[in-house]
Design brief:
The chain has 354 residues and is of the alpha/beta class. The chain folds into 2 domains: 165 residues, NAD(P)-binding Rossmann-like Domain (Rossmann fold, 3-Layer(aba) Sandwich); 121 residues, no CATH class. The strands form 3 sheets. Strands 3-2-1-4-5-6-10 form a 7-stranded parallel beta sheet, sandwiched between helices. The protein has a two-stranded parallel sheet with strand order 7-9. The protein is globular.
């Protein structure tokens, strides 16, 4: 039987990488997004706003996927609204799919805020010991990830499908208009520093500069998402997913500087948030885009300084453990510096950076 994937958040970093992998493996793929016009050939395009239950049901009428991959969320002003809106989005989606009775597996992408807490209380209070392991339970704080999980669990119990939850750490990949996009944010920042002769400052904390960390290539996350739907031992389980290596930003920052042919400024421990450094850069980027014939002159469509600042400004070392899925046979590996370099090469080829 043909496997039919519905990728929700199809134009985002994770959704785009997952679609590429699913098509490579011969799946039938439908992509749901608010604006799916940019989806690649071979994908059935579904336009829907999951916050609207009626519109979602209408958009999915007659759609009968075997597998659903939820890779999207909608950022709100506070965590209470994050919980209300993002929980409802998952509920509206799964309610709309219920009449077809076709769904066998739902995979939900969340992240390390499962262990670190929501943005309002990020990395504050009593946190689990690192490296984070899946058996470490929920924090005693409100968190929209938990609300999303609860909606999946309730629908799985009601409709009889299997589920998996995937917790990446700082996803690196290509997408325009994404809310959390460290790789492209750093690429735009480096390009501006080079063009304007500005110092290429590490924007984060001393703990991040010196501490060990890891991250997740979107292609690595896509591989685990596919693996979890095909591996019975992985059904109804939550998994961390990272590249498999660890590094210190004191090393990685030099690697990024070399790729862009800029000099990495010395780091003295002072936090220089990108939101401040790039606050007035929109017109400079527009001028740079015009000079080089770039495809996206609107810097706001490419960068998410707030998210990069949250990641790189953390006051503690953050790593994740991958033993659970490795014991089950997921052994893929991706060097993190190559993840950045592959992304930068793609951004340049697509005329998104000079």
């Amino acid at each position: 039987m043909t496997q039919h994937a519905l990728v929700v958040g199809a134009t985002g970093i994770t959704g785009s990488a997952l679609i590429d992998l699913l098509l490579e493996h011969g799946w039938q793929v439908s992509g749901l997004a608010r604006r799916p016009d940019t989806l690649r050939a071979g994908v059935a395009r579904i336009a829907a706003d999951l916050q609207d239950a009626v519109a979602t049901r209408a958009a999915l009428d007659g759609i009968a996927p075997t597998h659903v991959f939820i890779t999207t969320w909608a950022r709100q002003a506070n965590e209470a609204e994050n919980i209300r809106v993002n929980g409802a989005m998952v509920r509206h989606l799964l309610d709309a799919l219920q009449p077809a009775r076709s769904v066998q597996h739902v995979a939900l992408v969340t992240g390390l805020k499962h262990y670190l807490g929501p943005f309002e209380a990020y990395a504050q209070g009593a946190l689990p010991q690192t490296p984070f392991r899946e058996e470490q339970g929920r924090l005693d704080v409100d968190n929209f990830y938990y609300a999303q999980e609860d909606e999946v669990f309730a629908a799985a119990k009601r409709d009889g499908f299997h589920w998996s939850v995937h917790r990446p750490h700082t996803v690196i990949g290509a997408a325009v208009g994404n809310a959390m996009n460290m790789g492209t944010t750093l690429a735009v920042y480096a390009a501006l520093c080079k063009a304007r002769g500005r110092p290429f400052y590490f924007p984060g904390s001393l703990a991040q500069w010196n501490g060990l960390t890891d991250m997740t290539d979107a292609r690595q996350l896509a591989k685990q998402l596919l693996w979890a739907t095909q591996t019975p031992a992985a059904f109804d389980q939550a998994f961390n997913i990272v590249n498999g290596d660890v590094f210190r930003w004191s090393w990685m920052w030099q690697r990024l500087a070399q790729w862009f042919d800029v000099e990495a400024a010395p780091f003295n421990g002072e936090v220089r948030p990108l939101e401040q450094q790039m606050a007035d850069d929109a017109p400079h980027w527009a001028a740079l885009a015009a000079e080089h014939g770039l495809a996206e002159p609107d810097m706001a469509r490419l960068v998410s300084p707030w998210h990069t600042d949250a990641d790189l400004g953390r006051p503690l070392e953050v790593m994740t453990d991958m033993s659970k899925s490795r014991r089950m046979g997921f052994l893929d590996y991706q060097p993190s510096d190559d993840a950045f370099f592959d992304l930068f090469t793609r951004l340049r080829a697509e005329r998104l950076i000079p």
